[in-house]
Design a protein that fits this description.
single chain; Porin; 13-stranded antiparallel beta sheet; alpha+beta
Length: 266
């Protein structure tokens, strides 16, 4: 299922929408899809002059791909400069995820950044990888920093030229790499897995939440350089923080996620 089609939600009532899922290799639903669709549902209730500035989501229950996801949007606040929305994603088993999103009308102000993109090879110089046929993921060779992972990601074109869709694309893509950073901290000498099945046989990992602060816009199908570091791993949970840049080094977003990692029981 192409990204444009995935973000095409069916309206099923006042501020209620239905989203559909493709099949995934592990049998569940990719968390980035759920967050992106929830953000899309929220944006459907917001004037187009507003753009998302942050989202904060909790993953509460695994979703199944053969059942639609229902997104119920609550209009928390409508102001002149800021709009707030809350979204609950459900399936028949119960609540799958919750999301809070803030939207800003934008204003004239300084544009500055202190964080810099790492110096890495261009995506064309790196081997293609990843588990999805809908987006390209090219990992940068490890630099020896514990818990650090960098990768280039982009949706495979074509993707409609829609600013709100581009924000959903960034939310979608930024759920993929954080788990790798947690695994890199726990198993620094572990070679990269040759397939999803290899990881799935030995380890269980699950995103517990997902947080994105959107700084600057970028086309949905442009390359993004994502750099994540697992800052700490305690009680089975890894705290991962990362930055997203475009090819010119412009700082697009800051991302934070907590990842659960367990060894599978034999």
């Amino acid at each position: 299922m192409q990204f444009d089609a995935m973000m095409r939600l069916d309206r099923c009532g006042d501020d209620r929408f239905l989203g559909h899922s493709p099949a995934y290799p592990w049998g569940g639903v990719y968390g980035g899809q759920i967050v992106a669709q929830a953000l899309r549902a929220a944006a459907e209730t917001v004037p187009p002059s507003f753009r998302v500035h942050s989202l904060h989501a909790y993953y509460l229950r695994g979703a199944v791909p053969d059942e639609p996801l229902e997104f119920e949007v609550q209009r928390v606040r409508d102001g002149r400069a800021f709009v707030a929305r809350s979204v609950v994603a459900r399936q028949s088993a119960g609540t799958v995820a919750t999301l809070s999103a803030g939207f800003h009308a934008g204003e004239a102000a300084a544009d500055a950044q202190a964080v810099r993109a790492p110096s890495v090879a261009a995506p064309e110089e790196l081997p293609a990888g990843g588990w999805s046929t809908d987006f390209d993921c090219r990992f940068v060779p490890a630099n020896g920093t514990p818990g650090r992972v960098a990768a280039w990601l982009r949706l495979k074109p074509p993707v409609a030229d829609d600013p709100a869709l581009a924000d959903c694309a960034l939310a979608y893509l930024t759920d993929d790499v954080p788990a790798d950073a947690a695994l890199r901290l726990l198993y620094p000498d572990r070679p990269p897995p040759t397939s999803w099945e290899e990881v799935d046989r030995t380890l269980f990992n699950h995103s517990l939440d997902h947080n994105v602060w959107f700084h600057r816009p970028a086309p949905a199908d442009a390359w993004q350089l994502q750099e994540f570091t697992c800052r700490s791993f305690v009680a089975g949970r890894g705290c991962v923080v990362g930055e997203v840049f475009d090819r010119s080094g412009s700082h697009l977003a800051t991302v934070a996620q907590e990842v659960l990692v367990r060894r599978r029981r034999s």
